Amino acid sequence: MISREQHQVNEAIRARDVRLIGADGDQLGIKPLREALKLAAEANLDLVNVAPQAKPPVCKIIDYGKYRYEQSKREKEARKNQKTTQIKEIRLSPSIEEHDVNTKLKNVRKFLSNGDKVKLAIRFRGREITHQELGRRILDRIAKEVNDCSDVERQPRLEGRQMIMVLSPKQ
User: Fold this and answer.
1) Quick one: a GO biological-process term for this protein (predicted)?
2) Which residue range forms the structural domain that includes residue 72?
């Protein structure tokens, strides 16, 4: 779709011949630009190039101010209806207790049900880095517990002193 700044209106149109669409939406055929401008002026409306890439370009006789207003309303409505997914991060440690894991699982389920992605990060402090299998075991358990409502987007992977896994909600 062409943004407002790219629309050519009236004298800004540089084509010799244009495919003309009337104010009521009917096709008027291929006309010279001068004649199309004259028809638009007689109707007290603007000649707008709606498809400049076409051969010949498609021009429409419309009220350009009203057209821009309606287009901005459509864009605003489209922005309002789109869902933005956030990434929620949950931090764990390799020495986490059973009850704490259950609490984190409850939060993971809540975030996934809201349509957000969840980034699980296990931070290894000091000598804990030598026992990476503990962290992987915790992440695998969480992934298995919530596999009914999530997909593993990124498998557990060590990045520096953190092991990170990303879960996304099932479609």
Assistant:
1) ribosome disassembly
2) 4-79
